[in-house]
Amino acid sequence: MEAIAFCNIAVMPVRETASHQAEMVTQLLFGEAYKIINYESNGWAKILTLFDNYEGYIDTKQIALMHTSAYQKYYVDSQPLIVNTLTEVHDKIRNYAFIIPQGSTLPFTSMDDHTICLGTELFKVPIISTTSFYSNMETKEQTLIDGSFNQQMESVALSFLNAPYLWGGRTIFGIDCSGFTQAVYKIMGKAIPRDASQQNSCGTGIPLAQAKTGDLAFFSNNNGRITHVGLLLNEGKIIHASGKVRIDNIDEKGIFCIERNEYSHQLHSIKRVL
């Protein structure tokens, strides 16, 4: 099998080609695993992210390999997700602390002392706030029925409000439109693809009039190509990453930018994923 590694830093850039000058296409968050497809001759490696099957290149100096036994355990044990906007973790081997963003993964967590084992490395999280509440499927189904799940999703989405737009970003320090919707869904316990055009293949199409909080809205250019995605809120509102994570109005025509008093995106479709 291919070599497996994990992200042991807060955020790891994944680039389109093997160069620091190349476009960042996505990011790995702390605790996320990936396959190493092959090593390049210039200190870079081509990888495949395991959360959303996305290919790109990373600096080999950032690689932290995971033993096969740990890799297998990664998919057996529960993987709670950080929901605090920022959380401090302590590297128990190197004896220093650093901050990780919401959406980070905490596999192999020992809840008695909040120790996380990633491969051969140990980290400690003083206070863990995770989506473990949603790990029980019956509880999750009930929250979908009574609406509290949608309320929680709205709360998670709003925690990204005013985060700056960053192509390829997935955190409050910089995020793109599909990175935003993917992050919200991940924190809520649902994996969706990375790009807007890929996310459009998920779920069931519904009319805007029947949309609820948490449904995804997709937007296209004049050629019909999906170029943008956002997350619907109640009462004709949408939260999306455009310049920054913002709330605007939405109708059958598209997104009406409140600040500029004009339509900014043309509506293509609405999808219900949950």
Top-tier CATH class of the largest domain: Alpha Beta
Q: How much helix, percentage-wise, in residues?
A: 10-25%
User: Strand order within the widest sheet?
Assistant: 16-17-18-19-20-21
User: Which sheet architecture does the biggest sheet show?
Assistant: 6 strands, antiparallel, barrel
CATH architecture of the largest domain: Alpha-Beta Complex
Query: How many helices in DSSP terms?
Result: 5
Low-confidence stretches: 132-139
Amino-to-carboxy terminus distance? 33 Å
- Topology pattern, helix = H, strand = E: EEEEEEEHEEEEEHHEEHHEEEEEEE
Structural class: alpha+beta
Radius of gyration: 19 Å
Mean pLDDT: 87
What's the number of domains?
3
* Beta fraction: 35-45%
Can you tell me the CATH topology of the largest domain?
Answer: endopeptidase fold (from Nostoc punctiforme)
What does this structure look like?
By secondary structure, the protein is of the alpha+beta class. The chain contains five helices and 21 strands. The model is unreliable at 132-139 (pLDDT under 50). Helix content is 16%, strand content 38%. It has three domains: 3-72, Roll (SH3 type barrels); 77-132; 133-272, endopeptidase domain like (from Nostoc punctiforme) (endopeptidase fold (from Nostoc punctiforme)). A hairpin with a 4-residue loop joins β20 and β21 (262-272). The strands form five sheets. It has a six-stranded antiparallel barrel. Strands 6-5-4-1-7 form a five-stranded antiparallel sheet. Strands 9-8-12-11-10 form a five-stranded antiparallel sheet, with no helix packed on it. It has helices spanning 68-74, 137-146, 148-158, 177-187, 196-199; strands spanning 3-6, 11-15, 24-29, 33-39, 44-49, 55-59, 64-66, 86-91, 96-101, 109-110, 115-118, 121-124, 170-171, 174-175, 204-205, 216-220, 226-232, 237-242, 244-250, 254-257, 262-272. 38% of the residues are buried.
